[in-house]
Amino acid sequence: MNIGEIAKRAGVSRSTVSYALSGKRPVSEDTRRRIQQVVDELGYRPSASARALANGRTSTIGLVFPPAGNHYTGMQLDFIGSVVEAAAAYDYDVLLSPSGVDSDRSFQRLLGERRVDGAILMEIRLADDRVDHLATLDIPSVAIGRTARPEGSWWVGLDHTTLAAACVHHLADLGHRRVAFVNRPEQLLRAGYESAHRGLDGFTKAAAERGLTVRTYCCGDDAASGQTCVAQILHDDPATTALVTLNEAALGGLYRGLAQAGRHVPRDFSVTGVVANHWAETVTPQLTAADVPAAEMGRLAVELLVERLDHPDAPPRHHLLTPPISLRASTGPGTTP
Amino acid sequence: MNIGEIAKRAGVSRSTVSYALSGKRPVSEDTRRRIQQVVDELGYRPSASARALANGRTSTIGLVFPPAGNHYTGMQLDFIGSVVEAAAAYDYDVLLSPSGVDSDRSFQRLLGERRVDGAILMEIRLADDRVDHLATLDIPSVAIGRTARPEGSWWVGLDHTTLAAACVHHLADLGHRRVAFVNRPEQLLRAGYESAHRGLDGFTKAAAERGLTVRTYCCGDDAASGQTCVAQILHDDPATTALVTLNEAALGGLYRGLAQAGRHVPRDFSVTGVVANHWAETVTPQLTAADVPAAEMGRLAVELLVERLDHPDAPPRHHLLTPPISLRASTGPGTTP
DNA sequence: TAGCTTCACCGAACCGGTTCGACGAACGGG
DNA sequence: CCCGTTCGTCGAACCGGTTCGGTGAAGCTA
């Protein structure tokens, strides 16, 4: 059942059917009704492939995962959900680009074969060849996060530097002097992930500013790693009284490690960081943290991308978000020296 | 840069280029090399839309979310990840069908406009019109979960009845006599979600069999709901010594509620259920539970769907999984009456 | 050297839409 | 009554691939 079939049954030409359905040219009320009736009867829907071929737009956006990331975190989940939802509101579908080792091939599939009109790049790295790649292929994109040189490009990001610093100041204000930093996994740091780098930067600088004694750690994206990481921290410096983490997935393990070491949160030990509120509220005591507004970021990314698709020559825009720290129950006064 | 451009530069016809690239007809080694060279030079990749139009297949599968589900859980995340990965291995892309209120429209987009070759339906309900809908549209699909009458259809599911029963037997064996059941949210139960229904069935029957005193509850998909749910349970019957849950997202809240009521897990109170191991290991003490093999289910679903796409007349297949209970640290002997 | 295959390639049709230019009928103005 | 618009519709071309049938040249046999 194609447009020709509809045309035949309605006794008009194919072009008339097209115009009647799209409304791009006037069609008499009489024929429009006749066509609509046939369409309804047969449950006809124009083929997306044919339409995409004809007008050069697929009405699909690609969601591209990181090359090194074979692991989805809770934050990414919220993000995906909001992207899909926001895209639907603009009549776009969302195509996922496979992560994993063979990512280059899938990148080519999505973008080289023009399956998508535009793309959203997740988990950006400071030096991210994907951004240039997209520009070369002339495919509009919006990055989640900033590269080292974000000028002139489209992105929505979190100000990890400021957020990590805010955590440090929060702890320092409470009187903590010896603080540890629990980062994302080492391979991600080495790969140049911006959240890991800028977060580390912000932490280090703010700590120096406040004259704190600090140690920094990388930690795998799972509970077991969090547990061993805490053990390591307390082994390296038993006088540590607080930690800041960017690592959502390790959070439960961090808590467990502290409990195991006999440290009560928040009485003996304070925990804070940058974590989606969904997760911050899951642990007990609930985590005082800068809430990652994953859902909002997804929505904004789609908005920006749609604007870019509609106005190819629009000047670059971006959103840098700095959510406040939500005071919950995982931080308390540090022991005075 | 289309196939005509390649043909011109290589000095051959468009069909020859097509055959050279697809290998569906022999092409002399000489011309094949010449064509390949031009292709490499220009970085040509055939348009997915045109190809889809020509051969009637989009090389894309749809992942359809539940109409009533506005919330993604951890299990669903693992699932999505494995589906995307498995699909990539078979050279398929994955298109997400927006969830939310307006799901019917997106369902039409994906399936009516034939954006996908096949679909995977998540969070199936016992009476799920989507299954029939798909059959009507003649689109091959695989369901995650069984409808009330799964005969003759393709699916991969979890034996929730048996799993919930196993949890009951585990607790009964430990000596628990008064046990609560924490189900998915009420609206999902009412909507007929199979996991909620079969899990409840299995729990109820096994409890009757073992002569236990039970109460069943529905609980929202978040920590706060879990917390209030536990409060309600202990209010309704303070002698309750254990609970079984299907509700991953509430898990953290359940633990918090118990701690708040002064019940120590597992000394005073046992917790078990059906939960992705990722989550079971996040809480402290780690949850003794039947681990939902979300990743495996995703992989199997894709396998089944691909088989169905390749062999349209293949007889229906399915996988019913019954993972064993992983003994961790959240259950212990019940108080003897 | 005629006759038959085989090989390598070409041209045209097709997939199912969109869009542009044209054309006939109705209509209004002078 | 003739001419210029306007309105509604049609035919054809096009998007960028795939695929079928055919054709000329080369190779082999008799």
From TrEMBL, chains A, B:
Signal peptide: none
GO molecular function terms attached to this record: DNA-binding transcription factor activity; transcription cis-regulatory region binding
Keyword Protein transport on entry: no
UniProt xrefs under InterPro entries: HTH_LacI, LacI/GalR-like_sensor, Lambda_DNA-bd_dom_sf, Peripla_BP_I
Polar residues compositional bias, start-end: 328-337
Region (Disordered): 313-337
SMART domains on file: HTH_LACI
Entry keyword set: DNA-binding, Transcription, Transcription regulation
Domain HTH lacI-type residues, every copy: 1-55
CDD domains in the record: HTH_LacI (cd01392), PBP1_LacI_sugar_binding-like (cd06267)
PANTHER family: LACI-RELATED TRANSCRIPTIONAL REPRESSOR, LACTOSE OPERON REPRESSOR
Protein name, per record: LacI family transcriptional regulator
Organism of this sequence: Streptomyces dysideae
